[in-house]
Design brief:
By secondary structure, the chain is mainly alpha-helical. Helices cover about 70% and strands about 5% of the residues.
């Protein structure tokens, strides 16, 4: 700033903030930091609404309470919505001052996504940046310090590994990861075929090399994502990261046990443990949820509809208890000599109830008495009704989650790809 005093006064909606000129230079809010580059009052008025040269006071006709919460983010690093204020209005204030939705806390990001998904309101952050910076980013952005540059690099790395739609590099990385998952799944499935076991004597080394390469990729990916994550404790608690750990750890445990006990060990328990650990690699297929919107929607729906899912299980358990007891009584309990042996116990009858209520009907057991057949018809009809009741809530939640994740992915593609390329 080539004019004015050493102390700058920001007047936002009547609330004043006194900031030294050196603080303005590296201020986290892009609109405020742009004041340091202004060489004339004309350039200043392109950034703010009015300027008082005598008091070196910059006027911004914006929401004062919203700016107060934004200043709390500058001070403490946590940005949340203003109580009793529309999420879209606060988001508009954020864009004005140069912040993005990624600066919000995760709970507030979900509120914003829900609000945008419900109203189908789209904010183009790139257009706003273009209007604010008509001369281009290179002329207006300040030289970042080493600390800010390192943090920005880590953020780009985090987005590249965590958000597959954020940039071209992230999409390539996600595609390579999907290929490794598919290759590992094909090898795991093929290794259980009898022909594969016969041919494995000749190609065991190739099989182990491919398996080691896949595990090495998954391990490196997990380590890098852990290093660049914002919160290490939150990273460990996330379900997908736990699944990654469950998919990777069995390989190293099985290799260690093979080295200690030998491939043809006589310890039956160790051999069973090895087979169980190797089969746990099926968790690799869940890694696809990181790259596919459909699997993410399914997981988010199950997490939000756990009450409806519990209610559905309660309905099924109650019906199993009632129809199982009645079926055992009608088919086996009334006539002990000519009774249907398939219904010798209530647990056995419960198996027939569950496959009848879900309309699977394997035919492995069925009623032979007239009362039992009438009961079977009631069981099938009640199963259709009971299963259909909570499905409506789960369906609407699934649609909402799908639109929310789709909108979030589209917004991420618009904003983060432009930032990565810049």
């Amino acid at each position: 700033m080539k004019f004015g005093k050493s102390v700058c006064i920001l007047n936002v909606g009547g609330t004043k903030y006194a900031l030294p000129r050196d603080v303005i230079k590296d201020f986290p809010l892009r609109r405020v930091s742009r004041l340091h580059n202004c060489a004339s009052e004309k350039e200043v008025l392109e950034v703010c609404d009015d300027y008082d040269r005598e008091r070196n006071e910059f006027f911004f006709d914006r929401h004062s309470e919203a700016f107060g919460f934004i200043m709390l983010y500058v001070k403490y690093g946590k940005l949340r919505f203003v109580p009793q204020m529309c999420e879209l209005s606060f988001y508009n204030e954020m864009i004005y001052w140069g912040l993005e939705s990624s600066h919000l806390e995760f709970c507030c990001q979900r509120r914003l996504d829900d609000r945008m998904s419900d109203t189908y309101t789209y904010f183009s952050e790139e257009d706003t940046k273009t209007e604010e910076d008509p001369r281009g980013n290179d002329e207006l952005e300040q030289p970042a310090t080493g600390r800010r540059g390192s943090a920005k690099w880590l953020e780009r790395m985090r987005r590249t590994f965590e958000e597959p739609t954020s940039s071209i590099a992230a999409q390539i990385l996600a595609s390579v990861s999907v290929i490794f998952v598919i290759v590992s799944m094909v090898i795991l499935c093929a290794s259980t075929l009898p022909d594969w076991k016969t041919a494995e004597n000749n190609s065991v080394e190739e099989h182990r090399i491919i398996e080691a390469v896949c595990i090495g990729w998954f391990t490196a990916e997990c380590i890098v994502r852990f290093i660049v994550s914002r919160d290490k404790c939150e990273f460990v608690r996330r379900p997908l990261n736990i699944i990654d750990l469950l998919a990777i750890t069995p390989y190293y445990v099985s290799v260690l046990m093979t080295v200690l006990t030998g491939e043809n060990s006589q310890l039956q328990r160790a051999g069973v443990t090895l087979r169980v650990l190797r089969m746990m690699r099926i968790f690799w297929v869940i890694k696809l949820a990181r790259h596919f919107l459909g699997l993410q929607t399914l997981g988010l729906t199950l997490r939000r509809c756990y009450r409806e899912m519990v209610m559905l299980l309660v309905f099924i358990c109650v019906a199993m208890a009632i129809f199982g007891a009645l079926a055992q009584l009608l088919e086996h309990g009334l006539d002990l000599e000519m009774g249907n042996e398939d219904y010798a116990s209530i647990p056995a009858a419960c198996w027939w109830v569950i496959i009848s209520m879900t309309t699977v009907g394997y035919g492995d057991m069925y009623p032979i008495t007239m009362p039992g057949r009438v009961l079977g018809g009631l069981c099938v009809v009640s199963g259709i009704v009971l299963l259909a009741l909570p499905i409506t809530f789960i369906y609407h939640s699934f649609v909402q989650c799908y639109h929310e994740l789709k909108f979030r992915s589209a917004r991420c593609t618009r904003s983060l790809s432009a930032e990565f390329l810049n």
